[in-house]
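for the record, two folds in this file. i put them one after another cuz i was lazy. first one right below, seq on top, structure tokens after. the second one comes after a little note so u can tell where it starts
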Amino acid sequence: MSKQVQEVLCNLIITGDEVDRCYSAKALGKLKNIQAIPNLIQCLRDEDVDVAIDAAEALGNIGDSTAIPALLESLTNDPDGEVKTAVVEALSKIDSPETITPLLQIAETNPENIIWDETNEWNAWWDMQLLAVKVLGTKKIPEAVPIFSAILTDEDSQDIESEILTALAQIGGTGEELLIERLTTGTPKQRRRAATALGLSKSSASRKALALALADKNVEVRIAAIHSLGKQNATPYLDIILRFLNDPEPQMRQAVIEIVISLSTPEQLIPLLSDSNPTVKTTVLKALYDTEIPRKSLEIIRSCLTDKNNNVVAATALLLANLQDQSILIPLLQILSDTNRDVILRSQIATALGMLGNLEVVNILTWAIGDKKQTVRLAALNALMQLEALDLDNPTQAITPLEVIIATLKGNTVAPTITQEPETTQETSPDSENSSNPEDSPVNNHPPQSTIEAITQSNQEVTVDKGSTELLQNPELEDVQEYMTIAQKNINLGEHLFVEQQIDIATDVRYLSANILGNSDKPEAITALIEVLNDADLKLRLEAITALGHIAKRSPNIEALTNAIEEIINNLKIDNMRLVCIRTLGYLGGQNTVLFNYLQDAEPSIRVQVINSLVNVDTKHADKFIQLLQDVDINVRQAAAEMLVKLKYTDAIGAMIDSVFTVDGAIARHIGKNLAVLNAEQSITQLLQKLEEVPNSSYRRFVIEMLEEVMLKERA
């Protein structure tokens, strides 16, 4: 069958018009058909420039050395710059020593007979030269070094310095020596580029030169050198690299950190948390995220919670929360409750509180659900869902995180609850007798915490239980009192804000809650979402149906989901709801009868979604999809073709081929891939027949593209 395709394409190269010749040449090249080389060589001399270019590209893709003489002849004699460029690219793809000399010549000399573009502003040789430089570097040709050196010193040459330096590094030897010389004696720009290129070298000489460049007066050179050392096996130079953690430039210190993260220990990074530059501190904190941190370093990290930079504070909170450091609970509560703090910071603090795995934070998160800023509201809801996913055991908690989210979905105001103050006890660890220093306590110890003051919305009063009142009178707990003061001020401020925007915030919280509940597989979450499917707010219904879709996609066998089907079908009657309803019904499965009613919907996106949502379709419905192969919308035609492939309905091959000619043939390659999956042999037979039937080269182009895709898929 492949021989037959080859013969047809080769014949088109001879008998067809320029479109036939172009597309046949391209296809033969992609199919790497060696037998087509004589025909392609003939096309190198074609009067149509596009045909000659496509023939050169095809010969390069085939990669056979027998084409080199013909390619060199075109390189020498064809005056068209685009053809010459295509020939150089073809030569670069052929693995043969015969290509080296012409590539060296192209890198060094502008061909005499080349034609500039019509504006006389661009010489195609510049493209050819750049191609040659890259190939000679990749092939590691030492003879190219003197040529590259001459280009670098030629003031009239094009600016391809970076590419030449990269090629020199790839070549190594004398090329690397030239790079090291420029790194030592060049201008700052030359030194920086040389340092960057040496990152590709693997020799000890290059590493030594880069290590010395760390002392360069120019910070950009130092940064380039440190990055290049990072690309190599720089472990022997770790001590030297670490010295530059004290570099006066913060950009350099940050670059050093990025390199030493994989080479050094947390103990070597912790001192940088006292750096004056917040970016350096943030980088260190993020680098420590997945490392084992010594106990003695925790207090240094905790001190960063009071940093003036919000990024530093957020990174600290997330790091310590990941370590389950319960000692940061009250500082985080203080930050979240301060509505004057940065919104992004407060949202990240809410995320950290969810990571802590402590149900004591449910109160503050419940309060934060009503925050003025949506970013904070969403983060608080996400944090509550994260706590719910941890399935924590705390019988004293009056309301669970999931119950809070469900209540907000229903539009109910949830007042944060008051829990009894736990008795203060001193936990002892196995090594407590040998360690009295607080810095040596294990990260996962849960120090006794007070019951945090309830923070409520609107005009509700703040109440304090007896245990909390006694605790607040303890002068040693000044941080708790400070928190309470801040919280009360923010409640007073919040009363006014919430009253003015209560409707908008409350409505938005319902939307967000519906979205968040899509992350829960618990029956009560599903039931709550189903209950709002007939709510007066259509957007809330939309969010709930979308959430149910997420649950069904993730866990389609949950029995409670079946209770949603009837209400979702009822919502199908609403125009703006159809798409999400159809998608969710598809995830729920077993709803083909309902979905078929929307295959002819006026909206193309609905038709596509219906096709994608159908499951376990019987072949008796194949005609429905064959009809859709002539749909005016390209996406519908593609989806219909994919469904016929799923059905393994080979009788649709002819219709799939014909669908390509609808409108503009834009789906030719997409259909070709589908035909290859459905049945390659039958598809090729019908495509060859179609090639003879279509009236002109524009149509033959589409058939050739389909043939090409089928053949490529079959060979793979």
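(here's the note) second protein begins now
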Amino acid sequence: MAKIADSYFKADPWKIIEEGFNADHSTVAESVFSLGNEYMGVRGYFEEGYSGDTLQGSYFNGVYEKKKANAPGYKGIVQETEFMVNSLDWLYTGIEAAGEKLDLSKVDFSDFRRELDLKTGLLKRCFIWHTKSGDVRICFERVISMTENEQASSLLTIKSIDFNGTFNVKSGLDFDTVHGGDKKLWNCFEHRAEENLCHIKGKTVATGMAVESFCAFRGSLVNKASESTGVKEDKKVYINYTLNLEKGEEVKLEKNVINLSPLSDLTAPLALGELENMSFAGVYSKSGQWWDETWKRSDIEIIGDLENQQGIRFCIFQMFQTYHGAVKGTNIGAKGLTGEAYNGNAFWDTETYCLPFYLFADKNAARNLLYFRYATLEEAKNRAKALDCKGAFYPIATISGRECCDLWQHASLQLQASTAVAYGIWLYEKITGDTEFLEEYGLEMLIEISRMLATRGDYNPDRTEYGYYCVMGPDEFQMMVNNNCYTNYMGKFTLEYTLHVMEKMAKENPEKLKCVKSTVSFDESETLDWREKAEKMLILFDEKTKLFEQHKGFFDLPSLDVDSIPVEDFPLYSHWSYDRIYRNNMIKQPDVLMFLLLFNSSFSQDVIRANYEYYEPKCIHESSLSPSVHSIFAEQLGKYDEAMDFFKFATRMDLDNYNRNSGEGLHTTSIAAAWMNIVYGFGGFRSDGEVLCFAPKKPSAWDGYDFRIVYEGAVINVEVRGSEVTIKTLGGENLRVKVYGAETEIGGKETVFKIPA
């Protein structure tokens, strides 16, 4: 793992701090300083504009454009893709001092400091601008509401140090934004800019999706302005304020914004009504209270390791900014709302990596996340038809529910998005006991996924074995393989779980089962078919070696020493021919190890050890999701130094730009994996068994740590110090759990356990 940190930000337990501005880190800083609330997100670009390297990105969840794919017209190959579109710049601002324009790539400035407060969600940037007419201190603050989806607010503070002269500030709303470096994808109408109020509405060129925005200004700058003029341009509206700024004088401009997207329930009149009552202080205060309650139930504290303390809190902060169940039926893009890489598409990582975080933070958020798959079930059924299958085939990459991956070998051969949905339903129902979701939405999805699995696979010639042919498993370096073990294992699980749910519902709620079967036109012969295929599913396992074979013939592939690959060859997709990657047993990311983690309690330590020691040396971790999975297993197997080596950049993947691509946006699912790395790895937490299990160990480099999870309405606090572990529920509730393999009851009173040698 020849990856090294590109350290830039100052370490702090609760803040991300940039002291002094380095243009070489501009886009990375924009990603790191992104703000969002699931409904909308904005990168940390400069409000006043910047002519240097920048990705001035502003995004709305579920607002996308489409384009033709460069693909042949074969059946099943995607002809059109969708992408999250760069949208309205609601921070648009321009500043001039005595005719000199503020642009940090061109002017002289000092004392630059930018900080993101993880406790409150406030982003603040200050510097001294050395104009030709004197020095001025400029401060920008911004916050996005975590309680009212559509609201955001900013505060501009200008203080003259020894400047005396004309100052000009313009601020408003701008749809003249650029996507992907060169595309302008918005048409605008309904412009208004008057009496300290701006209003604009835009629609995407191809999909016709509308975003409407209102902003209102107040503050001492407004009161002091000698002139204020409303300006309307083709795709932009703003108010232009002119004032005389005297030496030592300070003025403030408060800008309150309401943005309406297709996911908003607000009408324009209601938005204007809310705008009248908004204030920067109000948005900041309510969001601060929301974050305070959130940290109380979800914080992770690390003692004796400041960098990883900062790193994991940054990860948790970004997970809640990206998603917290605020909008029913949305999903999580690979970059969240922080950048345009991967086109804003959601992948199968949502249910396998992200869902556990939300399950143990806010069950309603987890429920809404799964609901996205139900809301897009019809699209999954259409995709199955395109691939000559029955039922539902969930897309590998999607925004609206339609397949957006135009690489056929991924879009047509990977079944793991579908089985991940089934796994997510299973884990959600197991942890929450929410049978209503299972009855109203879950079973219908399970039946349609099982129909796909029963038609996508096939029997061997003598019909003694069932499996999947010409597939690609999680290890994307092996294409068109037969009987990938992960695919077969998850297929077997899904078929059996679907049958189990129907059998249980037949006893507990037969009328509802009858209703669901009627909705999907269920034929009872499907039950026998699925049971036989599940029973005959080929799982390539050797009792003697305890090894699962990744796919049929994997053990016969040429062996490649991954440590011999020159570091300058990475990433391999950019430096090796496509077919060269497939011609050996090198692994991109966990495959067999992935299902061993998802169903960890089902496998013995001997099986886990054998497969870890066989597959780990073959993995090059080309995916940022990979190291955390290996770290969790290394910790479980007592390979503590190895676990820490894998962990060392998990929490700081983006803060330290390990992959040298953080400027494109944050690695959202890798951020979720970092949380898993601590809770499931060092904390020894397991959630796939009959009861929750804990087996914490303390890394030698740490003085201690603690983490919190929410379960059955209670907050469980696990504290690790020295050779002891203390567990209690913060609300005093009593719960049955396992600690180091022994079942016990925990409650409001601290229970202390010795860490086994």
